Amino acid sequence: MIGTIKTLLPKMLSMIEDKKIYVLKEYKEQRNKKQNSKYWKLLGKLAMKLNIGVEELHFQMLKDYSQRYQVCIPEEQKIRGIDYYEKKSSFTKNNILFNVYIVYVPSHELNTYEFALLLNGLCEECRQQGIETLSPNELLGLENIIKNHQM
């Protein structure tokens, strides 16, 4: 079910079964498979043109065009569950050394708007290398996603 809390809560209360467990989370629109396919296809073409690995280029695209946040982790702690990160700095507090990392949100966790920014950035990089990117209709669709989100 998708809806607001006010519309869903009465429906959910009428359906409750004591033995079942439910997960309630905010709905976030995800990118579509066509955008994802286009991204990886263009990424492969650009990687070949630049003579670098696809994963290396993907990480660079995330650094340049994806969402990011910072985390502080004690130095003796191993980083787990985070795929794309870079160490930014270190500091000591209460005689404990902490490392500060910039964490880049992986493409599969981006919503439609965030993925449109990533794909748009990749298209710009491809155009600079003379690689054909998106059709005019696809470009217009990306621009509309970005423009509508900024309003």
- Biggest sheet overview: 3 strands, antiparallel
Mean pLDDT: 85
So what's the overall shape? flat
Strand order of the largest sheet: 1-3-2
DSSP strand content: 15-25%
Helical proportion, percent range: 40-55%
Unreliable parts:
none
* Count of helical stretches: 5
Number of strands: 3
Radius of gyration: 20 Å
Based on helices, strands and strand pairing, what is the structural class?
alpha+beta
- Order of SSEs, N→C? HHHEEEHH
Q: Determine the N-to-C terminus distance.
A: 28 Å
Task: From the structure above, extract its key features.
single chain; 151 residues; alpha+beta; three-stranded antiparallel beta sheet; 5 helices; 3 strands; flat
Summarize this structure briefly.
This protein has a domain at 29-67 and 105-150.
What can you tell me about this protein's structure?
The protein has 151 residues and is of the alpha+beta class. Helices cover 48% and strands 17% of the residues. Strands 1-3-2 form a three-stranded antiparallel beta sheet. A hairpin with a 2-residue loop joins strand 2 (85-93) and strand 3. It is flat and about 60 Å long. The chain starts with a helix and ends with a helix.
